[in-house]
Structures are given as structure tokens and as C-alpha cells.
Amino acid sequence: MSGGHNVTKGSEPKKEQDLQAIKDARIPLAWRDTCSHLLIHLNGCRRETWWNPNKCESERHIYEECEYNAYLQRVEAKVQMDKM
User: Fold this and answer.
1) Is residue 41 domain-resident?
2) pLDDT tens digits, one per residue of 32-84
3) 45 occurs within a structural domain
4) E-strand spans in the chain?
5) Burial bucket for residue 66 (CB in 10 Å: 0-12, 13-18, 19+)
6) Is 65 exposed, middle or buried (CB count within 10 Å of its CB: 0-12, 13-18, 19+)?
7) Would residue 2 count as lying in a domain?
8) CA-to-CA distance for 36 and 13, rounded, in angstroms?
9) 36 assigned to some structural domain
């Protein structure tokens, strides 16, 4: 990736998702993207801790980093497409 951004292990966006697991976790359609596999774990942690913002910090950080990495991939794809 560009910019020298360090990627935390496990925060890489995945194109291939387990659609049944996403459906079972009742993830809304608007949130089903390349980071949905991490959102399942984050929402599970949130439910277990009654949405306490201090309890699921690591899961939230990994999910947000995944979303940022996915954004960087889309930007890079757009730059490559514009070069053509």
C-alpha cells in the first residue's frame, strides 16, 4: 500500500466473505463490504459488553483499520484506472 502505512495482522480487507455467516449475524446490507468478517466479531463483543465503549477497543481498532485499508485500495484502483 502507498504511504508507508503499517497493516495490523488481521485487518486486511477480504474480497471473499462467508455470506451465510454475515447473514446469520444480521449485518445490514449497507455494512456488507470487504471488512464484514471483522464487523461480526466487533458486534458480538459489543453485545456481550452491553455496548461499553471501553471493552471492545482492539476489535474496533482492527475494524476501522480494515475500512481505512479498503479505502486506500479503492483510491489506488481509481488512480490506476485514471492512468489508462
Assistant:
1) yes
2) 999 999 999 999 999 999 999 899 999 999 999 999 999 999 999 999 999 98
3) yes
4) none
5) buried
6) buried
7) no
8) 9
9) yes
